[in-house]
Amino acid sequence: MHAVWPDDPGEALALQARLRRRVVARGAPTPALVAGLDAAYSRDGATVYGAAVLFSFPGLEDVDEAWTACEARFPYVPGLFAFREGPALCAALERLDRTPDLILVHGHGTAHPRRCGIASHLGVLLGIPSIGVADRLLVGKAGEPGAERGAAAPVCFEGEAVGWAVRTRTGARPVYVSPGHLVGHAAAVDLVLAMSVGYRRPEPLRAAHRCASVARAGMTKR
DNA sequence: GCGACAG
DNA sequence: ATCTTGTCGC
Predict the structure, then answer these.
(1) pLDDT tens for residues A46-70?
(2) What does the CA dihedral A180, A182, A188, A194 come to, rounded to 10 degrees?
(3) Does strand B come within 7 Å of the CB of A165?
(4) Structural domains counted in chain A
(5) A189 in a domain, yes or no?
(6) Which domain holds residue A214?
(7) Which of A24, A116, A141, A149 has the fewest CB atoms inside 10 Å of its own CB, making it the most exposed?
(8) Residue A173 falls within a domain, yes or no?
(9) Residues with CB under 7 A from strand C
(10) Which CATH number goes with the domain that contains A126?
């Protein structure tokens, strides 16, 4: 048997190689419940706070929140990010009172050196459609999207579009969107834009980021 | 060999 | 990611 969350980078690479074959970057889900996933770290880096916030869609109402504190076992290695935050994010997700139809993850999906970033990884593992939204590129090059909200430019890597630079807010830097699993490129961009209202990052991710920070603050006290 | 490098 | 206040701009 193989571990779901190996501690060894070599083992993680082998598992990622197997998971990447199951990634399906196609589909156009019409979710009713979307979960935003993000994490925060204790100042010494020994603890990962994973947060999952459930939103209704397209209404965008915050309907449930959950978080967990886990020991940060896996080191930060660009390309193996899922093995560092995945355990805490999955644990938080399990604490929600309902299962989402779509998950939004802070990080990349297919815009990854082996096309299997944390969004794709979690999507395949959970069997739930997923989308990755990152603040900056890990791989590839992207043109500057138009200045107005809604504009997008492809992220090219090894001769193919692996994601999109999306202007979710006029006047703000673009966000990088890529399919995680069971969602195509166009649908991923459309869904992220539909969830980005007034701010650069989509609402579920803003809420998850806040939830993780609050969890850390409340834990740091006592 | 020299950079680049999600959070 | 995290350490950190005020401050410039829409």
Answers:
(1) 999 999 999 999 999 999 999 999 9
(2) -120
(3) no
(4) 1
(5) yes
(6) 9-139+181-221
(7) A141
(8) no
(9) A 40-41, 43, 45, 135, 171, 213, 216
(10) 3.30.2170.10
